[in-house]
């Protein structure tokens, strides 16, 4: 399974494809931290809009620098204007994005799904999708187990039902708090023998 990186708490109908991280040079170029699978695609889906859907700018990618793409924005002609945009989140309408491939999901499509354990027990709701470097992880909260981090793999998440509004979580050992308690009890029993 794969996840196309996008914003995780976006306004309805919009997806955050990047955020302006700073200015570059004197002619108005900006550095953008891209949330798209291919960083240069931050400019591939048409003009970006602000949170309420009003058009902001057309973007042109002119290069890369470390983890950022360098972008030229129509109407931004100097460093002062570029610096004023730092922190600006860049959105596109969800309908502008291509449909993901089989077993590929946008973060925005996973956030808000109900999470349940195989058999139907409620685990909570997908609050966010993270990638700490070892693969995608679903953050699930609001259920009886409290916050739970679940690796987004086929073994841990055997079913993703976007249309049905849910993900199904396999009760793999060590995933839920009660497994740790059971392990501790087994260790205590071994120690008393």
Produce the secondary structure layout.
Elements: E1 2-4, E2 14-24, E3 29-34, E4 48-49, E5 55-57, E6 59-65, E7 68-73, H1 79-84, E8 89-93, E9 104-106, H2 107-110, E10 114-117, E11 122-131, E12 136-141, E13 148-151, E14 159-161, E15 166-169, H3 177-192
Parallel strand pairs: 1-9, 10-15
Antiparallel strand pairs: 2-3, 2-8, 3-7, 4-5, 6-7, 10-11, 11-12, 12-13, 14-15
What Rg do the Cα atoms give?
A: 21 Å
Number of domains: 2
The helix/strand class is mainly beta
CATH class of the largest domain: Mainly Beta
CATH homologous superfamily placement of the largest domain: RimM
Strand content: 35-45%
The sequence of SSEs as H and E is EEEEEEEHEEHEEEEEEH
Sheet of most strands: 6 strands, mixed
Strand segment tally: 15
* Helix content percent band: 10-25%
Mean pLDDT: 82
CATH topology of the largest domain: Elongation Factor Tu (Ef-tu), domain 3
- The global form is elongated
Distance from first to last alpha carbon: 44 Å
How many helices in DSSP terms? 3
CATH architectural type of the largest domain: Beta Barrel
For the biggest β-sheet, the strand order reads: 13-12-11-10-15-14
Q: Spans of 5+ residues with little confidence (pLDDT < 50)?
A: 1-8, 179-185
Please outline what is shown here.
By secondary structure, the protein is mainly beta.
Question: Describe it for me?
Answer:
The protein has helices at 79-84, 107-110, 177-192, and strands spanning 2-4, 14-24, 29-34, 48-49, 55-57, 59-65, 68-73, 89-93, 104-106, 114-117, 122-131, 136-141, 148-151, 159-161, 166-169. By secondary structure, the protein is mostly beta strands. The protein has two domains: 2-104, RimM (Elongation Factor Tu (Ef-tu), domain 3, Beta Barrel); 111-192, Roll (SH3 type barrels). The strands form four sheets. Strands 13-12-11-10-15-14 form a six-stranded mixed β-sheet, with no helix packed on it. It is elongated. Residues 1-8 and 179-185 have low confidence and may be disordered.
